[in-house]
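Changelog entry: the Endoribonuclease YbeY record was regenerated in this release. Current contents:
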Amino acid sequence: MSLVLRNLQRAVPIRRAPLRKKMEIVRSILGVQKFDLGIICVDNKNIQHINRIYREKNIPTDVLSFPFHENIKAGELPQPDFQDDYNLGDIFLGVEYIFQQCKGHEDYYDILTVTATHGLCHLLGFTHSTEAEWQEMYQKEKQVLEELSRRTGTRLQPLSRGLF
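Regenerated structure tokens:
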């Protein structure tokens, strides 16, 4: 199915093609190409607004994920009954926040890819509320990013490293 990648901000110049290319590979690695996925790039003001409404945190953040399917066990794919339910959900990337957090030696598009991969893992039921959940999510991100790195010649590390 489709990957919809929208840029709804003007704070940071962004080329969608590099992110789209890498996220199509990530979708392939995870085996979720038959599911729709939305990735929406927003600025600090909008990600903060969404974060305040849905998480009661009045600060900008890097990524917020909104799954289409609820109560998925980590690592299990949804089993939709209807064609219209082949949807994973939406990932909001706080691209301005991500850009501000990038270190000088880091490639912005690599960090966007890592962050979007983290968000996609959330859509697939992974969380990091406890150390055990974090360990499971970290291992999945690591596995996906290692395979992506192998295919693209990059060296990507999970967003959740060092969380616990």
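The longest helix spans residues 131-152.
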